[in-house]
Known about the structure:
By secondary structure, the protein is an alpha+beta fold. The chain folds into three domains: 10-248, B family DNA polymerase, palm domain (Palm domain of DNA polymerase, Alpha-Beta Complex), CATH 3.90.1600.10; 254-427, B family DNA polymerase, thumb domain (Topoisomerase I, Chain A, domain 4, Orthogonal Bundle); 430-465, no CATH class. It has 14 helices and 14 strands. Strands 1, 2, 3, 7, 8, 9, 10 and 11 form an eight-stranded antiparallel β-sheet that branches. A three-stranded antiparallel β-sheet has the order 4-6-5. Strand 9 (216-229) and strand 10 (232-238) form a beta hairpin. The protein is globular.
Amino acid sequence: MVLLMFVRMVLEPKAGFYENPIATLDFASLYPSIMMAYNLCYCTLVTPEDVRKLNLPPECVNKTPSGETFVKSNLQKGILPEILEELLTARKRAKADLKKAKDPFEKAVLDGRQLALKISANSVYGFTGATVAQLPCLEISSSVTSYGRQMIEHTKKLVEDKFTMLGGYEHNAEVIYGDTDSVMVQFGVSTVEAAMKLGREAAEYISGTFIKPINLEFEKVYYPYLLISKKRYAGLLWTNPDRFDKMDTKGIETVRRDNCLLVKNLVTECLHKILIDRDVPSAIQFVKNTISDLLMNRMDLSLLVITKGLTKTGDDYEVKAAHVTLAERMRKRDAATAPNVGDRVPYVIVKGAKGAKAFEKSEDPIYVLENNIPIDPQYYLENQISKPLLRIFEPILKNASKELLQGSHTRSISISTPSTGGIMKFAKKQLTCIGCKTLLSNSGQTLCSNCKGREAELYCKSYLN
């Protein structure tokens, strides 16, 4: 099995909310291009002793930033660079055919083909750095990453040296972030069109300083742009100066299933108000209203449900987890409806004794509704929504924690039992077959017609789990 080992090369981000366009410059097929440009291969790697014995002149070898030595292609072309050339040439053909294709099915096939070729090309670097694979060669993988880091730093220096007021430009350019194969630049201009023009100029100028086939491309503009930290940002993505394509997010809680739906809705709406509506005060007020609703128990229970996968039995977990403890508790109540290994376990956090741990307060949402058990709003405020909110607002507000998590909107707390309004009024518990999990229509049954005859086996398995 081949494991991809991508070592990230990152320029420290300058966190903040950027209201001027940010141009993004990307290296096309960075790792494969480095391997081709510098002829990195098993058969071109030489030791210092080999260089002396073979009397190789300096102009015939490449000394990598990590200290390794490879012979140049004019002496011997590597096998890996040849493979990569074929893969990337085939990908270019597939992408060219994709542009011409009209049929949706044909487009899907060609898109899948170019993506497969891209992954295959990247995996050539990956298997050289995976020590558990069949062909590890850390000299190659470390050389690739060291060249990549050098190229990112070289790009930053050239951008900030060339695009200056002394050089005849309106503003001094500033690189605000660099991640693996891309660099994000603030040219200081106020329009997307101007940022795109300067981005293309910078890409062309810097590409000319690299060995072929290494190529820096202008790809897109973010405007506005919220840079939170490494691998965490959000912004409106523009590839056309007339209209933005979409709101692009990375590393932000908008898709994670481990968070309750309230977090996703709250973060998404805040980003919409900040980036699309350009109305930060409205986003702040929305947060305050949501926190007030949560503490006053005006929140639909369906928004507070957290789900996590049950990957093994309770005894196999080293640390007690909320969903695992709940699954064990539900099995004692009713084995037919209890979750098994492989299922996702939905739960909410309810009020408990002072100092109680989260795993002691986890409960089945339907059981909560049936028994009018109060939820713990403070848990959701402190452990679910506060960190995602602060990540978004800290680059924007001077004292985000005080502004959002303190004040009159946090002083009124209601511990009423949850209502069955909203989506949760349609929720009901249904029996499932303990063998195949098919829904059962008869409440007196525990097995479906297909699993009948296997009672002893399935009951033993259910008991052991």
